[in-house]
Design goal:
Helix content is about 55%, strand content about 5%. It has a 5-stranded parallel sheet with strand order 2-1-3-4-5, sandwiched between helices. It is an alpha/beta fold. The C terminus is likely disordered. It has 2 domains: about 120 residues, Rossmann fold; about 190 residues, Hypothetical protein af1432. Helix 2 packs parallel to helix 3, helix 6 runs antiparallel to helix 7 and helix 6 packs across helix 14. Helix 3 links the parallel strand 3 and strand 4.
């Protein structure tokens, strides 16, 4: 089995042949492209673990190809090494701006080339393992949602509303990514809740309620080993807290509840009110907001976020439409947007 697949791109046939023979002798599988357009087509059609791109290529040079690779969700995690014979500082700056992972200068030194290839391939393996773990979590979360027909599509809507609200508030990208992930996995701890409790139509007794409320802590423990989820953990644990301290699991009050958890709980409440439940029909947009404002007066929710949610939905009514199906099944896109 090859150690990995490496794409060599450049219009110098002799250089491609030399690099190809060298890398094959080390156990790598090699594919080759002669120009930028062919490079992009190959990256789209097959899995590649590393791309070696000559800066000077016809039909899109190395800089523009690198920029395109890093802009595409399906290829942005592929390491890109730019090979240049110019060696000027401004070329390195252009490469950094394009998203290149490393640089090599001509003439290539065998030892340096192999060392950098080995290092980047190893990092790609770690990234693939991380992506697989995140995908498993997202799939598990989707399976929990699928148990209850009344919650179909809830996670997708929650991700859309939460990210849109965070964008409306001007939050940075890392928090928007955390909310996108949190919308999918916020209830993953319900995997430990028995179905007879999870799907019970009537009120829960005290013991059942304790088991249900424990899902926030369980979900945090499930996701804690993934360092990439460190900003998602507060969302998972505290999205059922209330500003007056009557929520769970830690009875946090006011701004002690992290902003991202408050954003998700605001979106969660709106979605719960505007979808059918076994005990009632869905509220209208206006009824849902009126109910939320009444609960703000009780001291439960963040009134400023309810105001922001209303303004956002009034300005972007398309958010209320059903999401594309790709959102439901696109865990890979979810992971790669990080």
């Amino acid at each position: 089995m090859p150690l990995g697949t490496i794409l060599i791109a450049g219009d110098d046939g002799d250089a491609r042949e030399f690099l190809g023979q060298l890398l094959r002798s080390q156990g790598y599988r090699v594919v080759a492209a002669t120009d930028g357009a062919e490079t992009l087509a190959l990256l789209q059609s097959q899995a590649v673990d590393l791309a070696l791109l000559d800066v000077l290529m016809p039909r899109a040079g190395g800089f523009s190809v690198c920029r395109e690779v890093k802009a595409r969700a399906e290829t942005r995690l592929t390491p890109v090494v730019l090979v240049t014979g110019m060696g000027r500082a401004d070329d390195r700056m252009r490469g950094i701006e394009a998203g290149a992972d490393d640089f090599l200068s001509k003439p290539l030194r065998k030892e340096e080339l192999l060392a950098r290839v080995k290092s980047l391939i190893r990092m790609k393996r770690y990234t693939d393992e991380l992506e697989s773990a995140e995908t498993v979590l997202c799939t598990l979360a989707s399976s929990i949602e699928a148990k209850d027909p009344y919650t179909e599509g809830h996670c997708d809507r929650l991700s859309r509303y939460s990210v849109a609200l965070a964008t409306h508030l001007g939050l940075p990208e890392e928090q928007r990514v955390a909310l996108r992930r949190g919308g999918i996995v916020h209830d993953i701890g319900k995997v430990a809740v028995p179905d007879q409790i999870l799907l019970k139509a009537g009120p829960l007794d005290p013991m059942e309620r304790r088991l249900m409320e424990a899902h926030t802590v369980t979900g945090e423990h499930i996701c804690a080993p993934l360092k990439s989820f460190r900003q998602v953990l507060p969302i998972i644990r505290w999205h059922h807290e209330r500003r007056d301290g009557s929520g769970y699991p830690d009875r946090l009050k006011g701004d002690a509840i992290p902003l991202t958890a408050r954003i998700l709980q605001t979106a969660d409440l709106y979605d719960a009110l505007t979808t059918d439940r076994p005990y009632r029909k869905a509220f209208s947009h206006e009824q849902a907001l009126a109910t939320m404002r009444e609960e703000v007066r009780r001291g439960w929710w963040d009134g400023a976020l309810v105001d922001a949610l209303e303004a956002m939905l009034n300005n972007s009514p398309a958010l209320l439409a059903a999401p594309p199906k790709s959102i439901r099944t696109g865990e890979r896109e979810l992971v790669q947007s990080a």
